[in-house]
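User: Sorry, folds how?
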Amino acid sequence: MSPDYQIPGRVPEDDTQREAFTDYWRERYAAEPYYDSSSTFDDYEPAYRLGHQSRAGQVARAYEEVERELETRWAAERGKSRLEWLQARDAVKRGWEEAIRVDPYLDKGTPRGT
C-alpha cells in the first residue's frame, strides 16, 4: 500500500493521514441525524476520533460493553469540544461503526448484532 493511500475514516498515524480522517468526517458530520447546528465540526471531531480509536483497541467487545468506559474517557479526552456526553455519544458510536466499515479486520470476533 502506498504511503499516500488513506482509507477514509481510518485512525491517522501521521499528519497526512490525520488530515484525511478529519476531511472524511468534516464532509459528513452535518448530514448525521444527531447533528446540532449550534455545534461545530471541532465539537464533533474528538467524538469520532474517540470512537474510532476505541474500536481499534476493543476488537472482541461489543459497543454496548464499552460505552460506559467511553463516557469516562470522553470527559478526559474531549479537549475543547463543547459537547457533553449525551450530545457526543452518537458521534462516538458512529466513529466506532465507521471504523469497522473502513477496516473490516476490526470486526473479527465481534458478536453479531453490534
About this structure: Residues 1-7, 109-114 have pLDDT under 50 and may be disordered. Residues 34-107 form one domain. The helical segments are 15-28, 41-57, 63-77, 85-102.
